[in-house]
Design a protein that fits this description.
Number of strands: 13
Helix content: 25-40%
Number of domains: 2
Number of helices: 15
Order of helices and strands: HHHHEHEHEHEHEEHEHEEEEEEHHHHH
Largest sheet: 11 strands, mixed
Distance between the termini: 54 Å
């Protein structure tokens, strides 16, 4: 099925209407609208007037194909890209994208849309795609960090916030720092899987970047040797004798908090310098080769694509979770999963909501905070490079000084107490912490 994508992409590139129509009819022999859809996709028309959509999703996909035609005509190198950070939404009519399983399940319209997206010529190297909820306390630092490693385009999907995250995102978008996408999603669907599929299918601004890093707001990529990610990727692509990879897996370095209770102001990069062994990774993907992100941690790519780890060792597709850790020479991801118990309680509330709607993988019991935590000793000390942290601190302060930003962060700090008050009925959050904290972390 993946090989078909490469074949059809070549036919699309050569504008071979006859063979492209024939190939898509072979996939959907009962679809009598295939010739009209192909003709529309290969034209420069804005409106598929002679095609009647059979679903709201199909209507949106066809409309995007027309918008891509307009975009290609208007693109001057700056004008079509200047609005990348405009706030937008991913309404519930796109919820079904959460079940995207790649090319095998695409409709004819989705095929043509993805083929056209593949032909958007990138003008930047890397973008970030993230899904967040109630992350206002640390969001400015996270944005500052990714800007400091050379990433200018940050697309953030968000849903059901109660801590002021939405207002902070809109403020940051107004300063050209992020592109917020309000993800209105029924809880029977995974918000993250929906967001990743929406980004691949219906976020054409993402295709202005060659690569996309799919991470969460507690994950901070640390590139190799103090380089920007752009510079490191340029070296990877120049490496002799190596096929350009379609995806790169960066191992987690799991940062622990010693089981501490309270949130404190300050950079996460400095508050939690200790680590413990823990598997896991997240991925940087070459968008032209990526079919879907249903696995969340790694991409499903074209049949001829290669996935590597950060040491640039090829990763077998049937052994992604069995690969030994990389050396870290190519970089890694600092994962601040636990932070303080107060911050973890906010994470737990998010997971509880999903777990209650048949997403058991998001269940986060309070005991897990301690089970996945660890002591802070001389042996566990592994802070990020201080030169990078200093640059992040300076960028953080610059962003905080922008109009409106500090006020929204202050509102998030003020919201933490009322959010934690939901535990008062069971004795309070601190009582839960004291009851569960193991002696090793006391």
């Amino acid at each position: 099925m993946e090989a078909d994508f490469v074949t059809l992409a070549d036919l699309f590139h050569r504008r071979d209407e006859g063979r492209l129509t024939q190939a898509l009819l072979a996939r959907a022999p009962s679809e009598d609208r295939v010739p009209a859809m192909v003709r529309f996709a290969l034209s420069d028309a804005s409106d598929p007037r002679d095609i009647t959509p059979r679903s709201a999703l199909e209507a949106a996909v066809l409309a995007q194909i027309g918008a891509l035609h307009d975009r290609a005509r208007m693109r001057t190198g700056t004008g079509a890209e200047s609005a990348w950070h405009t706030p937008r939404s991913a309404p519930r009519l796109f919820d079904g994208l959460a079940k995207d399983g790649g090319a095998a399940g695409w409709s004819t319209a989705q095929w043509l849309n993805m083929l056209q997206l593949r032909h958007v010529m990138p003008t930047t190297r890397v973008a970030v795609v993230a899904t967040i909820r109630d992350e206002a306390l640390g969001l400015v630092e996270w944005v500052a960090h990714y800007r400091c490693i050379g990433i200018e385009r940050i697309f953030i999907y968000t849903n059901d916030n109660v801590d002021g995250t939405d207002a902070l995102l809109e403020c940051l978008a107004g300063h050209g720092l992020v592109a917020p996408i309000r993800n209105d999603v029924s809880l029977e669907f995974s918000p993250q899987r929906k967001a990743y599929a929406h980004a691949l299918h219906l976020l054409p601004e993402l295709r202005d970047s060659e690569w996309a890093l799919f991470v969460d707001a507690d994950e901070f990529l640390i590139p190799a040797d103090g380089m920007t990610l752009d510079a490191w990727l340029a070296e990877v692509d120049r490496r002799p004798g190596m096929k350009p990879p379609s995806g790169i897996l960066f191992d987690w370095r799991w940062h622990v908090s010693g089981g501490r209770y309270a949130w404190e102001p300050g950079l996460v990069l400095r508050r939690f310098p200790h680590v413990r062994p823990h598997g896991g990774f997240k991925s940087l993907v070459r968008l032209a080769d990526t079919l879907c992100m249903r696995q969340v941690h790694f991409p499903e790519v074209i049949d001829s694509g290669v996935i590597v780890d950060s040491d640039l060792r090829e990763v077998p597709r049937d052994g992604v979770w069995r690969m030994p850790p990389a050396s870290g020479a190519g970089g890694w991801i600092n994962h601040y999963w636990s932070k303080s118990f107060e911050e973890f309680s906010v994470k737990k509330a998010r997971g509880d909501t999903l777990a209650a709607h048949n997403h058991a993988e998001w269940s986060r019991d309070f005991a897990l905070f301690f089970a996945w935590n660890g002591p802070e000793t001389a042996a566990t000390l592994a802070p990020p490079p201080e030169e990078l942290v200093a640059r992040v601190a300076a960028e953080h302060d610059r962003i905080m000084a922008l109009p409106g930003v500090a006020g929204h962060v202050a509102a998030a700090v003020a919201a933490l107490g009322p959010m934690l008050a939901r535990f008062d009925a069971v004795g309070g959050l601190q009582a839960i912490h004291e009851r569960l904290r193991p002696a090793a972390l006391a």
